[in-house]
Structures are given as structure tokens and as C-alpha cells.
Design brief:
With 169 residues, this protein is an alpha/beta fold. The protein has two domains: 1-89, no CATH class; 111-169, no CATH class. It contains five helices and six strands, in the order H-E-H-E-H-E-H-E-H-E-E. It has helices at 11-17, 38-46, 68-79, 94-102, 112-143, and strands at residues 34-35, 52-54, 85-88, 107-109, 158-160, 166-168. A four-stranded parallel β-sheet has the order 1-2-3-4, covered by helices on one side. A two-stranded antiparallel sheet has the order 5-6. Strand 5 (158-160) and strand 6 form a beta hairpin. 26% of the residues are buried. Bound molecules: flavin mononucleotide. Residues 5, 26, 28, 55, 57-58, 60, 88-91, 110-112 line the site of flavin mononucleotide.
Length: 169
């Protein structure tokens, strides 16, 4: 499945604009390349980008698009640590951040959560939403026995099979 949000001709401009891959800007002309596959990860790296965002545009373009969490492992494997990999889409709880980091993401972005906070109570609502997310993440780390983010790994995750059985990842 090809990414559809940018043309590779745009990459030189994006690379020059996007110096910091941890930018929280949602201006879509100023985001790193959004990818969903190992092929696009290779292509982005071959064009010299300094970071990618695993994203399916919030699932708003195509009902059947692969989930970003499912796309993450193959992109991480393809990148081989050469560039930071961020992910967005479906982050709702601190444990979702934990899972993304455990699967190799270097950071997560969020879209709807701050919007919901904004609707709830303006700026205070956004800050509350972020605080809740942060506290859930810290609690999840503690319950998993992680003293710092660097200790989060695949070994903390389990997979539920179609037969309902739980196995280590
Ligand atoms: C109201 C709304 C509009 C969006 N518009 C776009 C868009 O025009 N292009 C795009 O690539 N992503 C768009 N997104 C997706 C976000 O950039 C982001 O990838 C997504 O919201 C992250 O997932 P989350 O909301 O589950 O955290 C939009 C999301 C929302 C909620």
C-alpha cells in the first residue's frame, strides 16, 4: 500500500523545513513523510529524510487502511535505527504509548485527544488531557517494572491469537 500524502519531489523541501523530527506541528506541509510500509521507509531514507511518521491520516481516508501499530514493526525493521520513527493514530491511553515504544517507536503524536480536551474545557482541558495521558503512561511503566523509557521493550508485550490464546511476542 503506497503512502498518498506527498510526492517524493517534495522531500527536498520537507527535509530543509523539518529539521526537528520531534516537531509537534500539525501543518501538513511541515510534517515528516508519513509512511505505512517498509518500502516507503526505505524510499524516505534513500531521499535523506531525518525522521518519518507512521500514520494512516487518523484512519480518515480509507476505512480499510492498515493500523499504524501493525505497520510499525516492519518500518522499524527497515529503518534499522538510522532515523527516528514516530507514530500516530489511535493513541488513547498511556498504555498505547507504552505499546508503541515497546514496538520500536521513538515517539508518538496525538490528534483527537487534545481536540477532545479543547472541547471539554479549552486550554485547561487540553492540559488535563495531556496530564492524564502522561500519568497513565508513567503508571503503565511502573506496573511493567520499567524505571525509564529505555527499559521498555518487546518483552513487555503479549499477543492474543485468533484462538484467544495469549503468547509472548
Ligand atoms: C478532524 C481531523 C482532521 C484531519 N485532517 C487530516 C488531513 O487533512 N491530512 C492528514 O494527513 N491527516 C489528517 N488528520 C489526521 C491527523 O493528522 C493525525 O494523523 C491523527 O489525528 C492522529 O490520530 P489520532 O487522532 O487517533 O490521535 C486529521 C485528523 C482529524 C481528527
Amino acid at each position: 500500500m503506497a503512502s498518498i500524502n506527498y510526492k517524493y519531489g517534495d522531500l527536498a523541501q520537507r527535509r530543509s523545513v523539518h529539521k526537528n523530527p520531534t516537531s509537534t506541528s500539525q501543518a501538513h506541509s511541515n510534517t515528516p513523510p508519513l509512511v505505512l510500509t517498509e518500502e516507503d521507509t526505505h524510499l524516505a531514507i534513500s531521499h535523506g529524510v531525518n525522521g518519518i511518521l507512521i500514520s494512516n491520516h487518523g484512519g480518515r481516508q480509507l476505512d480499510s487502511a492498515i493500523s499504524t501499530l501493525d505497520a510499525l514493526p516492519e518500518c522499524v525493521a527497515a529503518a534499522k535505527g538510522r532515523i527516528p520513527i514516530h507514530i500516530d493514530g489511535g493513541i488513547r491511553r498511556g498504555s498505547d504509548i507504552f505499546k508503541a515504544l515497546a514496538l520500536g517507536a521513538d515517539g508518538v503524536w496525538i490528534g483527537r485527544i487534545p481536540i477532545w480536551g479543547l472541547v471539554y474545557d479549552g486550554q485547561a482541558g487540553v492540559e488535563l488531557a495531556l496530564q492524564i495521558l502522561y500519568e497513565e503512561f508513567v503508571l503503565c511503566m511502573g506496573l511493567a517494572g520499567c524505571r525509564n523509557v529505555g527499559e521498555i521493550g518487546r518483552g513487555h508485550l503479549a499477543r492474543v491469537g485468533l484462538d484467544g490464546r495469549v503468547s509472548k511476542l
